[in-house]
Write a structure and sequence with these properties.
With 231 residues, the chain is mostly helical. The chain contains twelve helices and two strands; from the N terminus they run E-E-H-H-H-H-H-H-H-H-H-H-H-H. The chain has a two-stranded antiparallel ribbon.
């Protein structure tokens, strides 16, 4: 059990992962920091009053310092719940964050992770699109956007997204490999080979992946036929 100077308690039993422990501890420290900051400015509660610290802290939660910390605490809790696979609890924490505080990339990344776990592909698509629009330098946002668009819309929609990503990430092998997969599924095998060659040139590991990825089965079949004698 951990107890802060203002009476907050957190009990852990058989903790197997450090992330939820860290998230909860950070939240307790945030309360303690708010307590200390408010006490410096306005003085503390009367020690003779039962549970005075708890009531006094509640009364100071409208102060700017605490108001700024609360969304971070919610976000930290949501991350911890996600690590534990507690999706409903993570969603509840995110829902408590004011809309005015829900536009940061930290919030979007946690929401995106939650939506992926929920397999809500239209929502993943929209969230990843927002993320890529605000941080186009993040290749993973583009790949996630395309992955969700394939499931929510079509392979052609996913292909269009990654073609738009190339100018931002000309040396990203994952983008090229996914474009090879999309082209193979769409029947454009020459384009599939082109993107696959680019992917392998950027990362040799894609050569092995190309031998088993089901999306590339049409390309493998065509090239196997081409290699047969008399063809």
């Amino acid at each position: 059990m951990i107890e802060s100077g203002i009476g907050d308690k957190a009990v852990f039993s058989g903790v197997g992962r450090i992330e939820p422990f860290t998230a909860t501890t950070a939240a307790r420290l945030a309360d303690a920091a708010a307590h200390a900051a408010h006490k410096t400015r306005f003085g503390g509660p009367l020690a003779s009053q039962p549970h005075a610290s708890r009531r006094w802290l509640a009364s100071c939660r409208g102060e700017p310092f605490y108001s700024a910390m609360l969304p971070k605490r919610r976000l930290s809790h949501a991350k911890g719940y996600l690590e534990l696979g507690m999706l409903a609890e993570a969603a509840a924490e995110l829902a408590q964050i004011p809309k005015s505080e829900s536009f940061g990339l930290d919030f979007l990344s946690v929401r995106l992770a939650l939506l992926q776990e929920q397999q809500d592909w239209p929502a993943v698509r929209d969230c990843a699109r927002d993320y890529a629009g605000r941080a186009p330098e993040e290749a993973a946002a583009w790949v996630t956007w395309a992955y969700a668009a394939r499931r929510a819309n079509s392979i052609s929609a996913a292909q269009k997204i990654l073609l738009e990503a190339i100018p931002h990430h000309p040396a990203n092998g994952t983008i090229q490999f996914n474009l090879a997969c999309y082209a193979s599924q769409l029947g454009d095998l020459a384009d599939a080979r082109h993107h696959l060659d680019l992917a392998i040139a950027l990362d040799k590991d894609f050569a092995d992946a190309a031998t088993t990825d089901p999306d590339l089965a049409p390309l493998r079949a065509k090239e196997a036929t081409d290699c047969q004698p008399g063809t």
